[in-house]
Design goal:
This protein is α/β, with parallel strands linked by helices. It folds into two domains: 40 residues; 196 residues, SGNH hydrolase (Rossmann fold, 3-Layer(aba) Sandwich), CATH 3.40.50. The protein contains ten helices and five strands. The chain has a five-stranded parallel beta sheet, with helices on both faces. It is globular.
Length: 248
């Protein structure tokens, strides 16, 4: 009897182990497939490829502006928020992207669209390490690369502060608030030294802990409709300043 019970227990254990192994293999296969898809187009050049091809050329006198960034940019105009109705503004945000990816697609998704102004909002995903560990200097270098390309092509530059956050829901425990403050201080100084417009979303959205005020965020990072309503006039004022200025 004991032998039979032991045999049944061993059989059940074998089945459980096999099922666990199958689930692990399945999960691993799915992860590998997802990683392969990402590696095939790491900078996601295909994301806006067809949309860009169908975009009409800018007409004389048109104040075309490209908003360039990650999820906060991409989601602007969704879920009840309004993205500058009546304006010739183009949204080229891709959720999750880091500045390294944005440098690669800058020509396709900004320069080739021939805007007068580009509004760059980036840095959150660098701190989160979405494409691997990044130092502040790496983020700063990528900002500089994008502004160099814009200036070389006669595009006015608005550099937006990283929006506040005290934690990232997809990568908890990084304590990003101080890192965000430090990068924003560098960015503001860089704009002042090189004649770019600094767009300060941070001061309007931040709470006492360095996070975003709860009425302005859905998850501590991404904006609510109210959050975008705060950001919109700040962005418009920065664009107006860039368009009216005599220097980049």
């Amino acid at each position: 009897m004991k032998i039979a019970v032991c045999a049944l227990l061993l059989a059940g254990l074998s089945v459980a182990v096999a099922q666990t192994q199958d689930a692990t293999v399945s999960a691993t296969s799915g992860q590998v497939a997802a990683m392969q898809t990402k590696l095939d187009d790491w900078a996601q050049l295909g994301y806006y490829h067809n949309t860009n091809k169908s975009l009409p050329a800018a007409v004389p006198g048109e104040d075309r502006v490209v908003f360039y960034g990650a999820s906060i940019t991409e989601f602007w105009g969704r879920n009840g928020s309004s993205f500058f109705p009546g304006k010739a503004y183009i949204n080229r945000g891709i959720s999750g992207q880091t500045t390294a990816q944005m440098v690669v697609r800058f020509r396709q998704d900004v320069i080739n669209l021939r805007p007068k102004v580009v509004v760059i909002l980036a840095g959150t995903n660098d701190i989160a390490g979405n494409t691997g560990p990044m130092t502040p200097e790496m983020t700063e270098n990528n900002w500089q690369s994008m502004t160099d390309m814009a200036r070389a092509n006669g595009i006015k530059v608005v550099l937006a502060s990283i929006t506040p956050s005290s934690d990232f829901p997809w990568r908890k425990g990084l304590h990003p608030a101080e890192k965000i403050r430090t990068l924003n201080a560098w960015l503001q100084g860089y704009c002042g030294n090189h004649g770019f417009i600094y767009l300060d979303y941070y001061s309007a959205l931040v709470n006492a802990d360095g996070g975003m005020k709860p009425e302005y965020t859905v998850d501590g990072v991404h904006a609510t409709v109210k959050g975008y309503e705060v950001m919109a006039p700040l962005a418009q004022a920065a664009i107006d300043k860039a368009l009216s200025g005599t220097r980049y």
